[in-house]
Design a protein that fits this description.
By secondary structure, the chain is of the alpha/beta class. The chain is built from 14 helices and 16 strands. It binds 4'-deoxy-4'-aminopyridoxal-5'-phosphate.
Length: 443
């Protein structure tokens, strides 16, 4: 299918050959690869991306959801220029005031964030959250949910997309490596739970003495919401058994609404991880939550200036943590979203309903699932509650549609979810619906 567009993307194909000479698989993040070659971009503005062959696309990937103000927002450019102009440098390597301002802003939307620490990515944020939880509880196993992604390290690269033959029963899913290089002991340290399934609670109770943390995407993949009673029970049990509940809101923070999935559910986790949107398109992660847990990483004793021995403190450091330029861009992004988020949510709902209408006119069962400004196009009539349900959708047809959409100027990595930005307006939605109409008619 995509072969027919080879001529249209000849420069991307050529660059991919060059990239394969210098990087494994021609990419620097495996998620960026798709067959026969990914598209190389060289420009972007607002809701649009432009590839190296001069084709333009309405961008629904938005750097995996990070660019909630779209590409090249003038206010962010201005913020970056003036931050450099005013301070004369872009990195102090010392504490600075923006760290406090940004923390207070987060607290405004995430009231459970007594304290926070900055990291450089979502991966680093979940890693720090788990280390804090283990240090705080003294329990070294963790639990995560089948199909949930939390970043690129061995402890969480388990059961992301296990095969039918390996995944075990839903009463007790197996912990299945999703990467090479994960050894047996690492597999055993992570307990895998079924999502939106009460069996998860029995497993948790069984391993409660060993599990220090439960890590969850409160909306799986950004588009499969947890049931509210499931969430309440999870909160109740983790509290009961001294297990730190971590909401990984790297996707959902500022995309579901300003207070993330936790304000949607009215449930306060012990720790929250944020990433993507909060950096305004630059690398930033946050771990925030209960003061007593965050204090594990404090170099001084609470309410005193007594300096602790390094071995009595949970190590946390990083050359770029709290980068001033990035915090400035992030703060500006959040300021803009305070005024413009509702409009993004409205546009997302409009696109979802127009797509569902179009598919139903064509006689194809499709659900545009998600809450907030992320959704996914699932070709299935069944109710999708977790990874196992999701596996049953019609990916073959979806892939066919996605490749044709690329050819027709709609960018989402094949099979990926959709994210919208403040720059996606009615014009872009109309273009998207027209492209879908053309593609579905030609199926
Ligand atoms: N957690 C979740 C829920 C994510 O969606 C992601 C990124 N897709 C991560 C963690 C890792 O974030 P990063 O890519 O910034 O390391």
């Amino acid at each position: 299918m995509f072969q027919s567009s080879r001529v249209k993307t000849a420069n991307s194909a050529r660059l991919f050959e060059n990239a394969k000479e210098v990087m494994p698989g021609g990419v620097t993040a495996n998620i960026k690869f798709f067959s026969p070659h990914p598209l190389f971009m060289d420009g972007g503005e607002g809701a649009y991306l432009r590839d190296v062959d001069g084709n333009d696309y309405v961008d629904y990937m938005l750097s995996y959801g990070a660019l909630m103000l779209g590409h090249g927002h003038p206010a962010i450019k201005e913020t970056l220029y003036s931050q450099i102009e005013n301070s004369g440098t872009w990195l102090f390597g010392t504490p600075h005031e923006l760290e406090i301002q940004f923390a207070n802003k987060m607290k405004q939307f995430f009231p459970g964030m007594d304290f926070l620490r900055y990291t450089n990515s979502g991966t680093e944020a979940t890693l720090l959250a788990l280390r804090l939880a283990e240090s705080y509880t003294g329990k070294h196993k963790i639990a995560k949910f089948e199909g949930h992604y939390h970043g690129g390290y061995n402890k969480v690269l388990l059961s992301l997309d296990p095969d039918l033959a390996e995944r075990g029963s839903s009463e007790e899913p197996n912990s299945v490596p999703s990467s090479k290089g994960i050894n047996r002991s690492q597999v055993q340290e992570t307990v895998v739970l079924p999502y939106n399934d009460n069996n998860a609670f029995e497993i948790l109770k069984k391993h409660a003495n060993e599990i220090g943390a439960v890590l969850i995407e409160p909306v799986q993949g950004g588009f499969i919401p947890a049931g509210s009673s499931f969430m309440s029970e999870l909160r109740y049990l983790t509290e009961e058994y001294n297990i730190v509940l971590i909401f990984d809101e790297v996707k959902t923070g500022f995309r579901i609404n300003l207070g993330g999935a936790q304000s949607y559910y009215g449930i306060q986790p012990d720790l929250t991880t944020l990433g993507k949107v909060i950096g305004g398109g630059f690398p930033l992660g946050v771990v925030g939550g209960k003061k007593e847990i965050l204090m594990e990483s404090s170099p001084i004793k609470e309410d005193s200036s007594e300096i602790l021995k390094p071995r009595d403190v949970l190590f946390h450091s990083g050359t770029y943590n709290g980068h001033p330029l990035i915090l400035a861009a992030g703060l500006k992004t959040i300021d803009i979203l305070e005024n413009e988020l509702d409009n993004v949510l409205m546009k997302t709902d409009l696109l979802k309903s127009e797509l569902e209408l179009l598919f139903s006119e064509k006689g194809i069962p499709m659900q545009a699932i998600g809450i907030g400004s992320i959704f996914n196009v699932i070709i299935s009539e069944e109710r999708i509650l977790n990874y196992r349900d999701y596996c049953e959708a019609n990916f073959k047809m979806r892939k066919k549609i996605d490749y044709q959409l690329l050819y027709n100027g709609i960018y989402s990595k094949p099979l990926s979810r959709y994210s919208l930005s403040t720059r996606h307006g009615e014009k872009e939605i109309e273009r998207t619906i027209n492209a879908y109409e053309k593609v579905l008619t030609g199926l």
